[in-house]
Write a structure and sequence with these properties.
This protein is an alpha/beta fold and 193 residues long. It has seven helices and six strands. It has one domain (4-157): Rossmann fold.
């Protein structure tokens, strides 16, 4: 039986924006994936928590962004795991729960460069395929040519969640920078203002 191929797009999505959606759309259409799952992380161990919106609000915004697109799913598995969450632990748990699914990790060149900081990164590299998208100023470092790494020539989108948070805090309207449902939810809830 052929396994279902699913890409895992991890992130705090604080907030989710059109850069995330464009990248997800590109990867699911231009690779051999059947689906892409947005895995909302409660806390990235390599990032500060102070500007992080509550877990359930970020999750709700991702649900509103994905809407009912059948190519995408939203996953909150890390909400029920020890914190901080580590990618290898999440991948292991998902693989156990979905034995007929072949998971690939979606990450940027910058993540690939910082791979030695990740828990059990060698196991991750040797067990899972990494679909790696370009990031300005990053070449992937010493793992760029690893056999598990597949380069994805996705467009480089220069939008970041931190840019959106700063702009919203200074009163800017960024309605075209975010999926409509997520933007409306953020605005109604007065997040980041």
């Amino acid at each position: 039986m052929n396994k279902k191929r699913v890409g895992l797009f991890f992130g705090s999505f604080n907030p989710i924006h059109n850069g995330h959606m464009i990248l997800a759309n590109y990867i699911v259409e231009f690779t051999d994936l059947h689906e892409l799952w947005f895995v909302v992380s409660p806390q990235n161990p390599l990032k500060e928590k102070k500007s992080l919106l509550d877990d359930h609000h970020r999750l709700d915004m991702v649900f509103k962004a994905v809407n009912d697109d059948p190519r995408f799913s939203v996953n909150d598995i890390e909400f029920r795991m020890p914190r901080p969450s580590f990618t290898i632990d999440t991948l292991t748990r998902l693989s156990e729960r979905h034995p007929n699914t072949e998971f690939s990790l979606i990450c940027g060149m910058d993540n690939l460069e910082s791979m030695p900081k990740w828990k059990n990164y060698e196991m991750l590299l040797n067990t899972y395929r990494l679909l790696v998208y370009p990031r300005k100023g990053h070449d992937g470092g010493k793992y760029a040519q690893h056999p598990s790494v597949q380069h994805v020539n996705a467009p480089e989108i220069e939008i970041s969640s931190s840019f959106i948070r700063r702009a919203v805090a200074s009163g800017k309207n960024l309605s075209f920078f975010m999926p409509d449902g997520a933007f409306r939810y953020m605005t109604e809830m007065h997040f980041y203002e």
